[in-house]
Automatic annotation (TrEMBL):
<dbReference type="InterPro" id="IPR006035">
    <property type="entry name" value="Ureohydrolase"/>
</dbReference>
<keyword id="KW-0378">Hydrolase</keyword>
<dbReference type="InterPro" id="IPR023696">
    <property type="entry name" value="Ureohydrolase_dom_sf"/>
</dbReference>
<dbReference type="GO" id="GO:0033389">
    <property type="term" value="P:putrescine biosynthetic process from arginine, via agmatine"/>
</dbReference>
<comment type="similarity">
    <text>Belongs to the arginase family. Agmatinase subfamily.</text>
</comment>
<protein>
    <submittedName>
        <fullName>SPEB protein</fullName>
    </submittedName>
</protein>
<dbReference type="GO" id="GO:0008783">
    <property type="term" value="F:agmatinase activity"/>
</dbReference>
<dbReference type="InterPro" id="IPR020855">
    <property type="entry name" value="Ureohydrolase_Mn_BS"/>
</dbReference>
<dbReference type="Pfam" id="PF00491">
    <property type="entry name" value="Arginase"/>
</dbReference>
<dbReference type="GO" id="GO:0046872">
    <property type="term" value="F:metal ion binding"/>
</dbReference>
<keyword id="KW-0479">Metal-binding</keyword>
Length: 192
């Protein structure tokens, strides 16, 4: 649901119960901007606000599928400075993400993890119904590999954001989003 701003208050509540959490973040964008049009809270800033409030276990944050244009010559520097692992989309092209997710499972360990999936992490050929599409993204099969690769983690919450059905008359983006949410429910702890 909604734009990625929604993850910020969710992570405030999750951290209140669990402390700082690991994050598996699938997106075209890092969403670590500082401001837009003078506003500190918008869909491009939630993870910077989360860092500032200590909501994330920064050594257990992985961002997958990142790509697209930027105003900054090194758009991932802030993330790397925080200890995040950034996996640009081009590192995912033409291959299975099962080996990556084995590494991610090791990185996350048995501590609490949150999954945040922005539909624009997928290529707009599969999910055009989003407000900030970026070419050369992940495939639906890779999305399934990421989500299914989270099975066994101590998942304490998840979201799927930025679906804008009115931008996709075919309905495929909403269908894909619904299926990805179903897959997330299936990897929650205790689900058989």
């Amino acid at each position: 649901g909604g734009d990625h701003t929604i993850t910020y208050p969710i992570l405030q509540a999750v951290a209140e119960k669990h402390g700082p959490v690991g994050l598996v973040h699938v997106d075209a964008h890092t969403d670590t901007g500082d401001t837009a049009l003078g506003e500190k809270i918008y869909h491009g800033t939630p993870f910077r606000r989360c860092v500032e409030e200590g909501l994330l276990d920064r050594g257990r944050v992985v961002q997958i599928g990142i790509r697209g244009s930027s105003y900054d010559p090194d758009p991932y520097q802030y993330c790397r400075d925080q200890g995040f692992r950034v996996v640009p989309a081009e590192e995912c092209w033409r291959k299975s993400l099962v080996p990556l997710m084995e590494e991610v499972r090791t990185q996350m360990g048995d501590k609490p993890v949150y999954i945040s999936f922005d539909i624009d992490g997928l290529d707009p050929a599969y999910a055009p119904g989003t407000g900030t599409p970026e070419i050369a993204g992940l495939t639906p099969a890779q999305a399934l590999e990421i989500i299914r690769g989270c099975k066994g983690l101590n998942i304490v919450g998840c979201d799927l954001v930025e679906v804008a059905p009115m931008y996709d008359v075919s309905g495929n983006t909403a269908l894909l989003g619904a299926n990805l949410l179903f897959e997330m429910l299936c990897v929650l702890p205790g689900v058989k």
